[in-house]
Every structure is written in structure tokens, then in C-alpha cells.
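pipeline/complex-builder :: batch 7 item 3
reading input block
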Amino acid sequence: MLSLKYIRENIDLVKKSIAAKNVDFDLAKLLEYDKKRRDIIQEVESLKANRNIINKKISSSNNVKDNIDIMRSISKDIKKLDIELNTILSKINNDLLYVPNIVDSSVPIGVDESSNVIVREWGKKPEFDFDIKGHLELSEKHRLLDFKSASKISGSAFPLYTQIGAKYERSLINFMLDTHIAEHAYSEVLTPFIVSSSAPRTTGNLPKFKDDMYYIELDDMYCIPTAEVPVTNIHSKSILNEDELPKKYVAYSPCFRREAGSYGKDTKGLLRVHQFNKVELVQFVHPDKSYDVLEDLLLNAETILQKLNLHYRVVSLASGDLSFSAAKCYDIEVWSPFENKYLEVSSCSNFESFQARRGDIKFRSNKTNKVDFVHTLNGSGLATPRLMVALLEAYQKENSDIEIPGVLRPYLNVNKIKSK
RNA sequence: GGAGAGGUGUCCGAGCGGUUUAAGGUGCACGCCUGGAACGCGUGUAUGGAUGAAAAUCCAUCGGGAGUUCGAAUCUCCCCCUCUCCGCCA
């Protein structure tokens, strides 16, 4: 969320960002509401000031009767104006939730992903001198996944990991958590996976993207689409000390996504699923530092792929591909040899004060003793399904055995997944 | 699910219709005192909003919302949250 004041004082920038993100929003109407709001406030506040003065006269007695008559009429006027003000305020507050975050000046401008900019590539595409198999065929052969049983349980696109597949998944999660905790100094949290509506409102998932989440009507709660949602809200409605910044959290969670509107796309196996596991990095930082931290956080996520020795590239998202809440975002895409394309395994975003405003997350400056909103950032570090695709495919041998990367061997206690 | 207790400023805690512009304490900051410190004394100490170049002035805020009243932290209703006990349950 942007503040009304900020919007009023940066109309051009806000207008530009709305256009750059391809968002439909009537800014002129909002500014008109704001003008009306300020007019009413001035009127009603002078009445209230008057009310306070007369109230004091009544309590210090003499002329009580006359003053009560005056108070009656003032109170009537105040009540009328307050209703008018509340009406306009609720319109404004609702509209504000639909204003997208501003776009950082370093973000490439473009309507969609075709304008994304490749920032760097790491490693190189593995080469094979035999016909390679895809992750589905490999996991079927080694009984790592059982989509058939899963569909009986939950329908399509819910993975059921079995035997060494399940252990592999668990190992990946632990490996990633351990790496971020030990090498990047994140502190681990394990959060609720079902949240009330205020949490996704903070992060920007609500109100605009309600249909992307699983909703539990009976309790008016949501299954989290990412650990970003609960973790970002750890510090909602509070003022942190500047000394406490940066706050760095790493959280494993399952992620639940309805993926409405994406049917028919990436339907094979693990490429797009309704439930997946992810290790998420979240930081609360001083506003001056957030763009440096974004680069750090990106490197933290990249470390995982480097340790797994998987080829990947980093992409800076164009304005039109940028999410509603983000000011800037990098995607990390891992190479899938069989799909013959890059698969998104991480998004690392700087939200600046956008989420902090929605969640009321502030810090008190040491120097000025004033409070200001923190900046929030997060990034997947990483999501497992497409990572698993890349791992199975890149590490397959001609006899279909799958080698286990060195860093995962202590977790899995085997060097290879062998045909039985 | 049932019964009860409670939600007040950084924190603790009083107030239960108009001397509350929220007592008192605590924490914090600054000043005085001191060789330096503690003690003591003094001053200040929130958030949001409106006007304003600024200084400042004003308005709102005692979990949230609605109501009663000339006037609500205080009375009424609805909701949320925390705690205790009971029931159910992994």
C-alpha cells in the first residue's frame, strides 16, 4: 500500500507505475476522494474544537442550560459530517488496497516477460551422449512419485512422494534450511499454515488475488500460498528498534495455490502443482539498505543451486511481469535438460514499504527517534518441485540411475538412486 | 462446544458519566549535581491525521465497531483477541 500523502505528492510516479504494471486503476477518482476528505476534515475538526471548548464551560458550570443547547446543535452537525467522512474514508481505504506498488527505476519497462532481462548465467547446460528421460519417467521408474494415488486422494496436481522420493524431498528441505541458517545467518521459524485474512492482506495477496488461495469458509481462513504470508506478519502492528534490523528469517512451509486460470499449462508431473514445499527467506530491513539486501538475498538463494551444481540463470523481471506488491524482482530459473527450458524456482523481491504499510511494520530510528516503515524483502530459497525436476534430469545416467549431489549425500545416506 | 476473568501509554497499573489536557510508578532522553558515577532534583517522552515554508496550532486514539448522552476509558449491544477451568480430541 502507498500512503495517500505519498500518492498526492508523487502523482506522476504513481501514474507511471500503474501503467508500467498494466494495472487498471482510476487514480483521478482517488485524488478527488482525497480532496473531499480533507475538506470535510477541516470543517468537522473546527466543530469538534468548539465542542471541546463548550464542554469545558459546562463542566465548570454557570450558563449550563444555554451551552447545552449549543452543544446539541454542534453535535448534530458533527454526527452528520462524521458519517460523510466515514463513507469517503472507507472508499479511500478500499481503493488504496488496489494501488500497485511503485516500480523501481532500475526495472526494465515492458508489457510482459518478453522484456525481462537476463542478468547472469551460472554453470552450463549438461550434455548427454544418450537419450535422456524426463522427471516423470525417471520418478516412475524409481517409484519416487505416485500421481495416480495422489489423484484419488486430492485430484490432479497434488504430488505424492514415495519411498526414496519422499526422503529426497525431505533431504532437500533440510539441506536448504541448514545452509541458510549456518552460512547466511537466517533464523529459523516454523509458522502456522492456515491464516486469517489480515495476514495475506499485508503481503498483497488480498484483496486482489483471493481466488489464488484456498479458502476455508467456515473459519474465514486461508491456506498459505507461501511462508512469506505468515513470516511477514510476525512483526505486524509493531515498532522495532533500529538495532534489531535487519531481521532475517528462513521458514520451511508447504505452499497451497489454486493456480486458477493456468490449467493446460505445465501440466506434467511436478511442473505446476497445487501443493508444494518451499524454503522461504524473509528480511525486514532499514529503508536505505533494501536494494543492497535484495542482491544479497538473491545470492543466498543462488548458493543452493551452486552447491547442487545446477545450471541456472537470473532474470530481472520487466515492469509488466512484476507482481502487484513488488518494486523490483529477480527470478532464478534452473535448467531442465529434458524440458529443454529454464524453470522458475525462485522469485526474490523488494517490496520497499508496501507490505510494511499494509501490515503496520515500523522501526524507530536511533538518530532521529522517529518511526518509519521498514522495507520487506523475500525470496524463495528455493521451491522444491522444479528443483527436483532439474536434479533428477541433470543427474541421470545412461542406465537411468540417478546420482545424488555430494551436498545431499549426508542427508540421504546414498550416492545413487539405482534401478531395482 | 460450555463457564468465567481480562484487554488502558515502552512496560506495570489506577480510574468506572464532566477538575483525566489518562493519576502513580517504571523505562528512555536531556540538563543540574559529581573528579567520575550512583543517589537526588528538574525537563521532556506515543501514534495517526488536518492546516502551515517552518515554528506551531488543532482533531482523533484507553482491543475493534455501533449505540445511549449536551458530554463516554467509564453505561448498553455486537465482534475480535488473551488467560483459567470443563468437555471433545492428535
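note: DSSP finds 13 helices and 16 strands in chain A.
queue -> next item
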